[in-house]
Design goal:
Radius of gyration: 21 Å
Order of helices and strands: HHHHHHHHHHHHHHHHHHH
Strand content: under 5%
CATH class of the largest domain: Mainly Alpha
Number of helices: 19
CATH superfamily of the largest domain: ATP synthase (C/AC39) subunit, domain 3
Number of domains: 3
Largest sheet: none
CATH architecture of the largest domain: Orthogonal Bundle
């Protein structure tokens, strides 16, 4: 099984359990129904699914959008932690490495909140303690008085050198975009190092990480193209995918949208991505383009996981689909809170 022993009962059990969990994710038809619901109706619907215990537990302390936000965050963190307990051996190692992305998201969220003077309780509502930094660690960070103190409290974390180097610029400019990008570049570099470090199953893990890097870089190119940013963009790209940073830089200089898509297609080998690029030729909304690219990434992940059924891939497929389920429910709830019509909200959903 391409680096994973087909005789490993633990691996077979874990991957089978994850496929069962996938079958319990909210299907497309239910999202389409929720597009026509009010926020209270969506909350009741969520309370009848796998989010029931969180809705019930938090219902006495929160209501409306706050209840939905907290319940989704709690559920996602608990689900990811339960998966870490379930998966054995090399699968656990790769899963834990992959989930460290939530440390970056949580730390950047706390830093932004501190700089903007937000209350710790408000920041905490959107944190997902699914990485190495658990609830206790995040609460300690929330108790710090400033972004600088938050960074100091993170000495010893693998991303601290990047944080120490980039935080002064972020505070000076009031923008954390560059810091966040550098943290994710470091994160993907570490994932690739883990994948090529000689651990069984690493080659399969690397194939998926390269797919994810390609997707993020292509999404970034579309954002830059839409924003008419054509200067040197190499530092914004994530190295390690199937495109070199120099190739991505050359693509970023193409100003016309159709010519840009044609140039991108000449670099792509994956048929589903070629088809997707053609389908988004006429789309102008960047969120619709990003959703289309995310869908093709998930579809390719699913194909890969069927090829390697007892590898890290079934676990990663579930982690990603669960993440987007929570993102979809959050988008629906937030959209209904501000009165967006269902047809507009549908364009933001990854279904």
């Amino acid at each position: 099984m391409a680096g994973i022993s087909s005789g490993s009962a633990q691996y077979i059990y874990a991957c089978t359990r994850l496929r069962v969990r996938r079958s319990l994710l909210i299907p497309r038809e239910d999202y389409l129904r929720m597009l026509n619901m009010s926020l209270p109706e969506i909350t009741r619907f969520i309370g009848e699914t796998n989010y029931r215990s969180e809705i019930d537990e938090l219902g006495t302390s929160f209501s409306g959008i706050d209840l939905v936000e907290e319940a989704l965050s709690w559920n996602l963190a608990k689900e990811y932690q339960s998966i870490l307990e379930l998966v054995p051996g090399e699968l656990k190692y790769f899963t834990a490495s992959y989930l460290r992305r939530w440390d970056i998201q949580n730390v950047v969220t706390i830093l932004r909140g501190k700089l903007q003077g937000m209350r710790p309780g408000k920041i905490k509502e959107v944190l997902i303690p699914a990485g190495r930094l658990n609830k206790v660690a995040l609460d300690r960070l929330l108790a710090e008085e400033s972004p600088e103190r938050v960074a100091e409290a993170l000495k010893g974390e693998r991303f601290y050198p990047i944080l120490e180097r980039e935080l002064p610029r972020a505070i000076e400019t009031g923008s954390f975009a560059h810091l966040e990008n550098e943290l994710y570049k470091g994160y993907y570099a570490r994932l690739l190092a883990d994948a090529t470090g000689g651990i069984k199953g690493g080659d399969i893990f690397r194939k998926y990480i390269e797919l994810e890097i390609d997707t993020r870089n292509i999404q970034n190119l579309f954002r830059l193209q839409a924003g008419r940013v054509h200067e040197d963009v190499r530092e914004l790209m994530i190295p390690g995918g199937s495109f070199s940073v120099e190739e991505l830089q050359r693509l970023s200089t193409v100003e016309d949208r159709d010519e840009f898509i044609d140039a991108l297609k000449r670099q792509v080998r994956m048929t589903p991505l070629l088809n997707t690029l053609e389908s988004i030729r006429g789309k102008s909304a960047i969120h619709e383009i990003e959703v289309a690219l995310t869908r093709v990434q998930l579809e390719q992940m699913e194909r890969m996981s069927k090829r390697y059924p007892f590898s890290i891939l079934p676990i990663l497929v579930y982690l990603e689909e669960k993440k987007y389920e929570v993102a979809n429910l959050r988008a629906l709830a937030r959209g209904k809170e501000v009165g967006l019509p269902g047809e507009r909200l549908q364009g933001y959903l990854v279904m």
